[in-house]
Structure formats: C-alpha cells, structure tokens
Design brief:
Elements lengths: L1 H20 L6 H32 L10 H26 L3 H7 L3 H5 L4 H6 L5 H20 L11 H5 L1
Helix pairs in contact: 2-3, 2-7
Length: 165
C-alpha cells in the first residue's frame, strides 16, 4: 500500500508540474492585457452599426411610412440593433478585465440593458425619436467611458454578413 501512495504522490507532482508549465490560453494576465483591445473592437462595431443602419437612415426619413426602401431599411435596422446590443454586452464584459475601464463602463450597464428589445422594435417599424435617441446616447456614453479610461473607440461599420451571423 505504501508503494501505491508513493506512486500517486509522484504522479500528482508530475501532473502539477506539467500543468504549471502549460500556458493557459485565457490566463487572467492575458484577459487583462487584451481587455481594452477587445472593448474597443466591440464598442466600435456597435457604434458603427448603430450609426450606419439606425441613426443615419432614421435621420434621412427611411423609416417613415411610404418611404422608398422602408422595409429593407427597417430589417437592416432591426439586425443592426440586435447586433449593436450584442456587441455592447460583449464590450461591457471585456471592460471587466481592466480595472480603470471597469469603473468607467460599470454605470452604463443599465443603459445597455435598456436596448435589449430595440432591435425588434426597429424591425417592426415601431421605434420613434426617443428609441433612436436612446441608442445614440448609450453609444456616446460607452465611447466617452472608453476615452476616459484610455481606450478610444472609433466607429467601425460591420459588414452585412457580420450583422446576420
């Protein structure tokens, strides 16, 4: 029995050494190292989608009844709204990996959550000035929070393929 105990102890020590020598693909250091980069990428995609397919067409009157291309514009806005919400949630999670960014973005979580159903509202043509303004305000708040934490967010317009999937 003592021989088995010694063999188990030796195997455990070898396993611990191997585990320590094998780098973890998502170690806390790596997550923190790339937190700002991921935040900037996700927030930039959300901002780009919101401006390109929601704010700009809304200001151009493409969502009004009788407007040429209205249905297509509403479908794209709905997809963009869902995409932007998804990317903002991801950016919010990314921000947790950086202490300064986490403090800046933390208070915006409720605003991001309030956008959850706007993609559907946009697609159905039920969104109004207040809804479009809410999207714009949250995007601008996230950009400001990033800037204050040293992570400047610039708009990146996603491709149509990125919106759908």
């Amino acid at each position: 029995m003592a021989a088995f105990a010694e063999a188990d102890a030796a195997a455990s020590a070898e396993d611990a050494e191997a585990a320590a020598a094998t780098p973890s693909p998502s170690s806390p250091e790596e997550k923190q190292k790339f937190a700002k980069t991921r935040f900037v990428a996700n927030a930039g995609l959300a901002a780009g989608a919101t401006y390109q397919w929601i704010i700009k067409p809304y200001r151009d009157g493409k969502f009004k009844k009788g407007a040429k291309g209205r249905t297509f514009a509403l479908v794209k806005a709905g997809l963009a709204g869902a995409f932007a919400y998804n990317r903002l949630k991801a950016a919010s999670e990314n921000a947790k990996g950086d202490p300064l960014l986490s403090k800046a973005v933390g208070p915006l979580t409720a605003g991001i959550d309030s956008l959850k159903g706007l993609g559907t509202k946009l697609r159905k043509g039920q969104a109004g000035d207040a809804d479009i303004g809410a999207f714009e305000n949250v995007i601008n708040s996230v950009k400001e929070a990033g800037k204050s934490a040293g992570a400047t967010v610039t708009d990146k317009v996603p491709s149509a393929g990125q919106l759908t999937g």
